[in-house]
Amino acid sequence: MIISASVVEQSSSTKEISGSVAQSSIGIAEINRNMTKNFVVAEDISKNILKANRSAGSMADRSMEVNKNIKEPTRLANQLNDMVVRFSAI
């Protein structure tokens, strides 16, 4: 009887351990799915940061060009103003 009871107890323990391993496996699979989702989100964030960085660089380039283009009309306005002053002095 003692051997039989021991075998039943061992069988019960083995089933419990097997159930725990199965639950752990399910939990690990869920963690893997979540990590995959996190990776995809992180990748999207990285792509968006790269796009924002490119846009900022493009804006800086355009701002420098606008600044450069403003200098010429300013120079011409100053030159015209000088001519008007000289003409008025005559």
Reported for the largest beta sheet, the result is: none
What number is the mean pLDDT?
Answer: 93
User: Could you tell me the number of beta strands?
Assistant: 0
| Secondary-structure element series | H
Low-pLDDT segments, ≥5 res: none
Shape: rod-shaped
Distance separating the two termini: 132 Å
> What fraction strand?
under 5%
Secondary structural class: mainly alpha
Number of helices: 1
Taking all Cα atoms into account, the compactness measure Rg is 39 Å
Q: State the share of residues found in helices, binned by percent.
A: over 70%
Explained architecture:
The chain is built from 1 helix and no strands. It has one helix at residues 2-89. The mean pLDDT is 93.
Notable features of this structure?
single chain, 90 residues, 98% helix, 0% strand, rod-shaped
Write the layout of secondary structure elements.
Blueprint: H1 2-89
Summarize the structure.
The protein is mainly alpha-helical.
